[in-house]
Amino acid sequence: MLYQFQKLSEEERLTVRRSPIWVTLLIACADHDIDGSELDRAKEIIHIKSFALKNDVKDLYEAIEEDLDNEIDNALKSLSASGEERLAQIEEEISKLNEILPKLERSYAVQLHKSLQSLAVSVAQSDGGMFGIGRISADEKKYITLPMLTQP
Fold first, then answer.
1. Which distant-in-sequence residues (6+ apart) come within 8 Å of 107 by Cβ?
2. Tally of CA atoms within 13 A in the half-sphere of 149 that contains its CB
3. 42 falls within a domain
4. Angle at Cα 99 formed by Cα 98 and Cα 105, nearest 5°?
5. Given Cys at both, which of 58, 89, 127, 139 links 31, Cβ 3.0 to 4.6 Å?
6. Which residues lie below 8 Å from residue 52, measured CB to CB, with a gap of 6+?
7. Domain count, the chain
8. Considering the domain boundaries, does residue 150 fall inside one?
9. What is the pLDDT of residues 71-128, one digit of tens each?
10. Following CA atoms 105, 13, 35, 58 in sequence, which dihedral angle do they give, to the nearest 10 degrees?
11. CA-to-CA distance for 48 and 141, rounded, in angstroms?
12. Is residue 1 domain-resident?
């Protein structure tokens, strides 16, 4: 268990642990169509964050990387087939962090929030556009700042 999570219940720990997966799926599903290239890019980003980050959130990415494919598959299986319903479910999962972030050390909560926003932008940039122009769709732009999360 990560030391930052000691004050959390098991359910809250799981919510934090899965937050990068939900953020990935939020962006991948923003246009109501799950793009495999976005999921592949997210996996790469999570792998990179697991060793490249210079902050405490690195441990979270290390922990989820071990079983990332299964975690993504399980999350996808739990979602509705309808694009609108699927987005609402994902937003609800991410919104659960609003009750958890205040329980964490402030510096860790800020790092986690920034890291999740960075992940969202990177996943959005992984698909679309020509020569880097228009890479983030209008649907994705609505979500890359994670408007359902209150900034710690």
1. 56
2. 28
3. yes
4. 90
5. 139
6. 58
7. 1
8. no
9. 988 998 998 888 789 999 999 999 999 999 999 999 999 999 999 999 998 888 876 5
10. 50
11. 23
12. no
Q: Cα(60)–Cα(53) distance, rounded to whole angstroms?
A: 11
Per-state percent for the chain, helix, strand, coil, to nearest 5 = 65, 0, 30
Stretch (H or E) spanning 41: helix 36-52
Find out whether 97 and 16 touch, Cβ atoms under 8 Å: yes
- Here the tokens at position 2 are 């990560």
**DSSP 3-state of 110:** helix
Examine residue 152 and state whether it is found in any structural domain, yes or no: no
Sign of CA dihedral 29, 33, 38, 42: positive
Find tokens 């934090």 and name the residue: 16
Phi, psi (rounded to 5 degrees) for 82 = -75, 130
Residues 89, 93, 99: CA angle, nearest 5 degrees: 140
Most confident stretch, 6-10, 30-34, 36-40:
6-10
The mean pLDDT of 14-20, rounded to a whole number, is 94
pTM of the full structure: 0.88
